[in-house]
């Protein structure tokens, strides 16, 4: 049987308390994602590569065509709620006006045990029927350790980006769709999105600023 004097006991208690405190602090920070999500979107007529950058309250969505030339970017601040659309062709930017009430809640969600593997992760099938737009979107979702998905929903839903289908999925913490298939009610394919990379990395705040030399387009 082990025996401890008072000094050893105090040291042991300190180590246990310190370990528990440190572990809880580390765990609580797991959801603070900073980095890049890369998506491939295949539509009926074209294919886009989309890169999403996330840092603290900032989100940036870059859209590229096959020639890897940037088409446009969405730069958003989740604190202010402001979203800016940046056009590289015209070297202009404008404030995106999003109507929060335009989010449609008239949807039916069907969760099943069907699953596939996407990038080595087991993904379960969620089918979302939107009665207003008469579309059926299939989400292949997986559990992740990062809790950044609700940010994307709140700020980018209805902004008109190339990842509308991706961000309109009903909000669920720590759940992300790794593959999204959007169809009409007649089962005709509209688009197919797939996450091909999630990279944790340090990002500069300059990435979330309007590029120099761009003029603001002010709508009436």
Automatic annotation (TrEMBL):
It comes from the Bacteria. It holds the Pfam family DUF4412. Residues 47-214 form the DUF4412 domain. This is DUF4412 domain-containing protein. It comes from Tenuifilum thalassicum.
């Amino acid at each position: 049987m082990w025996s401890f004097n008072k000094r050893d006991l105090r040291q042991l208690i300190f180590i246990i308390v310190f370990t528990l405190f440190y572990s809880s602090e580390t765990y609580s920070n797991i959801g603070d994602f900073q980095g890049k999500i890369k998506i491939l979107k295949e539509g009926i007529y074209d294919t886009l590569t989309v890169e999403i950058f996330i840092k603290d309250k900032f989100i940036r969505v870059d859209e590229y065509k096959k020639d890897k030339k940037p088409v446009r970017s969405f730069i958003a601040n989740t604190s202010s709620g402001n979203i800016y659309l940046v056009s590289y062709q015209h070297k202009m930017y404008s404030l995106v006006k999003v109507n929060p009430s335009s989010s449609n809640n008239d949807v039916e969600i069907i969760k099943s045990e069907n699953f596939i593997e996407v990038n080595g992760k087991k993904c379960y099938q969620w089918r979302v029927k939107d009665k207003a737009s008469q579309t059926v979107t299939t989400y292949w979702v997986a559990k992740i350790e990062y809790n950044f998905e609700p940010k994307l929903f709140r700020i980018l839903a209805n902004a008109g980006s190339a990842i509308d289908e991706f961000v309109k999925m009903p909000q669920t913490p720590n759940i992300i769709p790794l593959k999204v298939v959007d169809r009409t009610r007649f089962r005709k394919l509209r688009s197919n999105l797939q996450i091909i990379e999630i990279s944790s990395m340090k990002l500069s705040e300059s990435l979330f600023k309007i590029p120099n030399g761009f003029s603001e387009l002010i709508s009436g």
